[in-house]
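Lesson 9: reading folded outputs for more than one chain in a single document. The general rule is that every protein is listed as its sequence immediately followed by its structure tokens, and records are never interleaved. Here is the first one.
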Amino acid sequence: MLNFLQGFSYGLFLSCIPWFIIGLLNPRLAVPTLEPSRWQVVLRYWLLLPGAAFLLWLTSLWGGFGPTLGGWLAGLAAVAVALPVERWWHRWRARRAERRRQAAAAAADRAESERGVARLNPDAPPADADDLVKALCRAKGVLLAAECRQHAGQADRLYSRYRRLQGLLDRRFGEGELAAQRGHAVVREVVAAATERLQAIAAQAEGLASLDEAYARRRLDAAEDVDQTEIAALQRRLQLIAETRARLDRMASQNETALTALDELAIALARLDTSKPRHAVSTEQALLELQRFLDRTDDYTHSARRAEGQ
């Protein structure tokens, strides 16, 4: 066994030379990490593996000098066999880390989301989804792709309120009643305006994702190596990023106001007196609440159009 290890150490040491040359020419061929570099080649084939081969050779001398041919061949082939195994191991670790990151992000989203909010799947809208729900799914998909999760949750909240109010209106009023028709129209108008704002947020967030803020700040930190023209361009880029984020926050705030108004309508519907016969229910009160809500909705719609025109 010691003779085999002695031969293995000789073969491993000799194999480091061609692998070192190959790695200097193309690190991806000689280093199994996901982002190989030449310093890793030097560390691996100039220090670590030769050092390991030397220690193995020293410890194998207890059995005398007599390297075997099998040990030589095994040492020469060791790196070629180990590289694919190490690459698989690094890829497996990267996939596991990505799954954990996605699970943590999903858990954080659930923790931050409102209780009782249904979650939309951008790739698989609900079977009974209408055009508004499909538009919300598309907007959420774009926001998630742009890593704008803080605004993507509004799609779920709008969808939940939209479905809940539709159900409340259908349960509170009979089919064909004026209050139900007006209520459905108002809810749809509010959700449509909020969906348009969310689509605008998604479009601008997609453009914002292409701007590398960290790069601009690094270049500004090295101001002695950057001329004044580039400094002005980098500062303008950072200003553009800040202005876009402020605009996204304003539109998101308008959507929050719309969500609050939808909640007010849901509470108003829940307070309707249903203990009396249907014809004696305070329909006029419900219509008045809906009319007031419709007036507020007009304000939200005008605000959204002004924000989109900026």
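And here is the second record, again sequence then tokens.
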Amino acid sequence: MQDAFLNRLEALLKEDFSSYLECLNQIPKKAVHINTTIVKQKELLKPLLKDPIPFDSDGFYIEEEKPGKTIFHTLGLFYVQEPSAMMPVLATPFAKDAIILDLCASPGGKTLQLANLAPDGIIFANEPNPARARKLVSNIERLGLKNVIVTQMTSLELKQKFQGYFDYILVDAPCSLEGTFRKDPLAIKLWSQDRVLEMAKIQKELLKDAVTMLRTNGKLVYSTCTFSKEENEEVVLDLLLSSPLKLLKVDQKLFPYTRCGLKEFGKEVQKTRRGYPFLIGEGQYFAVFQKQTEEKINSFQTKMEELEKEEENYIVPAIQEVMTEIPFSIKKYHHHFIAVPKKLENEKIPALKTDLCFVKIGELKKGRFIFHHQFARCYGIYFKNQVHLSIDDPLLKKYLSGLEIEVEIPDGWGVICVEGFPLGLFKASHGILKNHYPKGLRN
């Protein structure tokens, strides 16, 4: 590890520095966050789950070496997430129907937490980097989240669309990653003082754009996984001096597992919290702000449209043919057919650079309607044709490998379910189930 970093950290941690050095030799504990949007009882996961995360009823330590290889992960029942990363979303409450922006969302762990806590709201999950945005979309689809819109935009582009719009904004900002050094050797190699200052500049720009998008009394949570005061307390102080915000106290349940912000920045900034590997998890910093000024909400024309009559005459019967009921509204966004939760059907969604808008239903191909994998993950329990497999059924392995399987079932579209959870699509013909599990996901 670089001497320059260790010298800085020793000056920062003082008497805690030896505790930090000691924990560097310890193997980090693995943990998961349960996807409560679909998991209502945790009995199925009991063999996997060990001790609970003390501040989060949906977080658990695990001993499984490769949790991402388990069928439970494939089914979207949990997200692998280290404990301290769960803290920022829990730092302050928000309404179940909140309109939320997760500004730096990839790979999606905090997006899941937000969706768990705001099941009746909308989560705009943003990621400007194309490769990271694809990873985010993949996770949203795997988790079966119905109320998420994935955008691929800069904060400046979003600010031009949304003024005074969001109830809650999370800025889990890109940073110098000092808090991850125990588990990420590449982060150590990339570290430099210049990189710290570069990240601080980016963080300030992101936050100032975020403030514009926050409505009156709306909450802004800023978090990093670094220790540097340049990226933490100095950024917070800069924002307080330049924006109409006040700092709020963090939820007290997180106090035993964090320390207050550095005292040199004054009593107010001590409301922010610092997490360290010798307390729990890895490194984490977070602060909660609230907007104080009256903010005018800008108006815009919605791009989420009703179906044209010809489209409706085709798509609605196609859905009715395969489903027992239609528990969503069918809309169109950028020429894509989407399923929108009924509580959100009248929301206005402007023209955005999106990778995902709620749930993709499918598309017309050569006169046939082809259902999308995400639609099966989110609404598969309503399909008439269902094949239920246990986790040790040999047919499951064949299906995950992309092979056809033989099951006597009515012809047409259907869904493979495992332990009651939708896994993926098939199309049956004379007892042969043609496999529609995405090629990129097959084992």
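What the second record shows: Residues 193-213 form the longest helix (21 residues).
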